[in-house]
Each structure stands twice: as structure tokens, then as C-alpha cells.
Amino acid sequence: MFRLSRLRLPFVLLTFWAVTTVPIALIWLLTSPATHEQLVNMWIEERAHYLARTILPDETAKQMTDLQALTNVLRQKAGALELQLAIFDAGGRVLVATTPGITRAATEPSEVQLCRNSGRPVFRWQEVRSGGHLRCVAAFPVTALSAPAVLWLEQEIPLSSANLSGTILWSGLRSIGWGSLLGAMGWLVVGLWVDRVLAGLSPEKLVKERGPSVPRWYPQEIVQLAQQWRDYTVQRENERKRLRQIQAELEAVLEHLADGILILDREGRGQKWNQQAAQLLRFPPHLSPGQLILSERIRHPAFPPWWQRVLSGEASPPLRLTHEFPEQHLELRAVPLRFDDTGDVHFLVVVRDVTRTEVLDRVRRDFVANVSHELKTPLTTMKGFLETLLDGAIEEPDQARHFTQIVFEQTERLERIVDDLLVLTRLDSATDQPLERQQVKASALIQGAIEQCQLAAERKNMTLKAEIVTDPDLDVNPRLFQMAIVNLIDNAIKYSDPGKTITVRVEMQDKEILFSVIDEGWGIESRHLPRIFERFYCVDPGRSRELGGTGLGLSIVKHVAQVHGGYVTVTSEVGRGSTFTIHLPK
Length: 586
Description:
Blueprint: H1 8-30, H2 33-55, H3 58-63, H4 67-81, E1 84-89, E2 94-97, H5 100-103, H6 110-118, E3 122-128, E4 133-142, E5 149-157, H7 161-199, H8 203-208, H9 220-255, E6 260-264, E7 270-273, H10 275-280, H11 294-297, H12 303-312, E8 319-323, E9 328-338, E10 345-353, H13 355-390, H14 397-430, E11 438-441, H15 442-459, E12 463-468, E13 473-476, H16 478-494, E14 501-509, E15 512-518, H17 541-547, H18 553-563, E16 567-573, E17 577-585
Parallel strand pairs: 12-14
Antiparallel strand pairs: 1-2, 1-5, 3-4, 4-5, 6-7, 6-10, 8-9, 9-10, 11-13, 14-15, 15-17, 16-17
């Protein structure tokens, strides 16, 4: 059973048949009566020729030399055909006649005279109004007899001119109708056959099969065309597969690039972009190509002149964009993309997130400034006291001892700063290298940290206690992790009044192991909490130096937690104390 789409070609061929055949039928129907009269004349002329050949064939005239015998033969034929006939010689004398009336006629018929003079047949007909018949008169030259003669015929046809014209007309229409029907069927069969051949040449079928499904009895040209079409189809399919593979590879590369990629036209409309570009430039979801206008998404005063330089082809430096909340730094570069086949020019825009670079650069600058300040303070103190000693104070034992003690304390402070910096350097490198880990009990780490800080706590009459709610096995670097706990306990001792209690707690919560150091100290104002873990950040720099802090302890705690896959949090209330918590994954 054919689908409707399979019948399109036969319908086209039938339409072609209709366009070429229907006008012929219409012309036939709309022809003038004069044309019909010509058809009647043609029909009567043909009938007269037929009668002449029937009545007097050449063989009969040659065989019949006796006029009486010829007369008898002609009378028999005339009676059978119901017509009148006569043969006239060159002088107009009647040689043979079927009725006596022709012999007795005073003059010969005018048709005979015209035929003798012209040497060509003469045909005439008229409608007999009384009987509704047609009278046909014809004269033919006869050359088969011994002397030239003229055969004269007269016959009445039981038809009026209108009936004969209509009969001829509808007979022609029937012929056209049957011919058209047969032609339509032929076109339909040819269309179905051609459609079947083309169906066997479909690209899907040719690709699946080894060769075209065309029978060998088809014309050789069709078989060769099918083979060439198959080769071309297979080649195109392979090219499409390769292009789809290349497209998939490029899309995968674009989607996994760390940089954002956009392709824009001259109006700045986005034709294509990857997910990273949408995230960096904060595009709304479900934005389709053509709807994105980059100038509407980037509301920065430096963007319009930069884009104009890009359009003009001038060398343009990268455009730097900055967002405050949250902090984000972007760098935009653009290059033209020219398509030779169309002449269109598009532009490739690369968006790079340089936030980390900017932050690290700022941290580096701040770090250098802070280190210089932290190192300069003890060095200045040491230099001042050493100059005093050199100026003569060394000769006074009490002064010399006091100044030397101060220099020694500042030297210890420098040593602690250097040690903490080295620890931070090792922690930074630990993020890129595997960390040496060991299995150790949480209680062992807590007890070791408390023992290291016990002497400092006793000096301030403070109590250190451990609350081991759970005692899991930890996969950590014991030295680094214990250092983080010690730093938290040491800070709690420094920033708490004497006689207070410091609690170190270990517990399990959800999917984390929590190590909390809880003190009853001075507390921290909320405005300082976001920056409390930055290097060299001090809530009260003067008091920190007085207490011997380096400003790096909490930064070390943060990095130790991060290299172990965790993080650190703080809650604090001024006058009531603080709680620092290290979160480790189980």
C-alpha cells in the first residue's frame, strides 16, 4: 500500500496529462459549425471514394470489355448499395446507367463536366429537406477502360447534416476520451514505476545496503545512475558523520573550557556561546541565539568604545571588568572571524575570569606589606637597643642585661614569624602535593595539644579540659593537625582573663567530625569575623604584639583544615567568649 507521499510523482504526471489533453477537448467542443461542416465534407468524400472503389475496382474495369456485361455488374452493385450511377464517355454519351432517367437526360450532370475538365474527382452534397436525408453526388475519372470515361454516383443518406455533424463530433470526443483515459492510466503506471525506482534510491536505503536495489532488467542508464547516486550518497553520509563528530568534539571542548567563548555579529548579537560565558557574564536562563545583545548585558562605560575599536579593526587591549558584590574580575579579548564564502564578519570574544589572579596579587601585595611591617617592628626595636648598648649602656650591667633581654625577646618573635611563614609555605605546597597521613585517634591528638599548652594555662591560672564525645580514627597528618589545635588553644589562653576555662570538644555531627575550642574570653566583634583568618590580620594589633602574637596562627589553622578537605568556622560574642570549630569530613 503506497503512502500519500509516494503518489506525488504520479499526481504530477497526471497533472501534466490534464494540462496537455483537456485543452484539446475544449477546443474540439468550442469549434464553430463551419468546422463541423468540414468534418461532414471529409466524411462524405471518404465515403464516395469508398463507393467508387467498391463499385468499379480497376480489375473489374479491365476484365469487363462488354458494356452489357459491365452494365449488369454495376446494376447489381448499385442495387446492393442503394445508389444511382452512370458512366459517361469523353463526348458526354452515357455508356452505362442504372436508371433510364439518366439516359433520357438532356444534359450530363455538372459534376461530370467539372471532373472531365479538371481530371480530378468532384464531390457535392445537399440536405433533402422533405425527407431529412443527405444527397451525395460525386464524379470520378475512369482510366481503366479503353477510352477515358467518368463515373457518376448519387446516393441518399438517411441522416440530416446536424445529426451527421453531431455523430461525428461525439464520435471524436469518445475517441479523445478513451485515448485520454488510456493515456492517464499509462502516465499513472509510468509514474508509479518511476516512483518505485526512486524509492529504491533513497539515501537511507542506499547507505544500509551494499548496492542499489534496482533489478538488472531495468535500463542500463538507470542502473548506472543508481550506482553513481549510491556512491554519492554514501560519500555525503560519511562527510555528514565526520562533520557531526567534529561538531560534537568542538562543542565538548567549548563546554569544558575554563574561559567563556562567544561568537557575535557586527551588531553585537550573540550567535553562540558556551556555558562558562553564560555564567561569567550572568546571562538569564533559556536565552536563545539572536536575543542576546552584549552591550545590554555589560553596563560598563568602557565597553562601547572598546567594541567600536574591535569593529574598526584597530588593535585593542583586553577590556577589564570588575563586579563588587560578589567580587569578580573579568578580562575580554576579541578577534574577527571572516567567512570567505559569504563575506560576513563575526567576532570571537574570549571572557577570562581573572578573579583568582587579582585576589592572589592583592594578597601578595598585602602579604609583603604585612611581613615587612611585622619584621620591621622587632628589627627597629632590636636596632634601637643595640645602638644604646654600643653607645655605652653595655658598661652598666643592669642596663645591659635589661636591653639584651629585650633584644632576645624580639629575636624570638622574629623566629616565630619565620617559623609560621615556613609552615604556611609548606601548607600552600601541600595543596598541590599528596599529604603524608597516618591513622591516629582523635583523643590522642587532643591530649597532646593540651599537654603542650598546659604550662601557659597554668601561668594564668586557667583550666584546660577535653570533652571526647566520640573518639574516631582520623586519617590526618598528626603534626600539622595538632599544630592547628595548639594554635586555637594558645589564642584562647592569650585572649582570655585569668581563671577562665577552655574546653576542647570532639563530636560527630551528620557527615563531619567537629573539633571545637571553646573559651570564655574577651570575644570578637562581628565586623572582624569575615577577615579573622587572613594573614597578619589582628583585631587589636597593639595588644597582639604585647601578647607575642604573629598574626599567622588562625591563617595556619585555616590552611591545615583545607589541606585535610575541611574548613574552619568561628562564632563569638564580645565579653562572653568565642568558639572556633574545625570541620573534617568522615
